[in-house]
Description:
With 187 residues, this protein is α+β, with helices and mostly antiparallel strands. The chain is 24% helix and 30% strand.
Amino acid sequence: MATAIPVREMIPEEGPVPVTMTEEQYLRTVFRPDCDFVDGRIEERNVGEFEHSRIQGMLIRIFGNHEKEWGVVTNPECRLQVAPRRYRVPDVMVLPRGRKYARVIRDTPLLCIEVLSPEDTWTRIRERLNDYLAMGVEHVWCFEPEAREVRRYAADGFVKVTEPELAVAGTAIRVSIAEVFSALDQD
Length: 187
């Protein structure tokens, strides 16, 4: 019979989130919202604002509606071990379908998507995106709700997307940028 692992819940209103902890402590802690773990440091993420939530929700709907057709599994805010002692929590992570995954993802995702909050900057988010690339993630997309812009991220930096849809080469994935940003329309 499996032994239950004690879990510690960290809610910012109930006390400060510790700045450092061990990897084992991190994996046994539930943060609300979840945090990244980078070489023993806890890094809080900017989440929770309306625009961020709407874009993230629309991306989850789009990918969720096409999971079987595109051969993917869509996970919002799921822990991803990008390297030893480094865990990131992408806003949306897209994995190949048909594999068995553990509670913490250690396999390379097909796609990682980040949605910027007003406090985020392109410079600040670059470290997180570099972790994805170093892990072998070939497709990294960043949505900026305020500017209604999308950028791809690769080893040579950010490239603003000017075409009407995003695609993942070698797959059936096609995402209309206008459809994603339509989540912000309040008609």
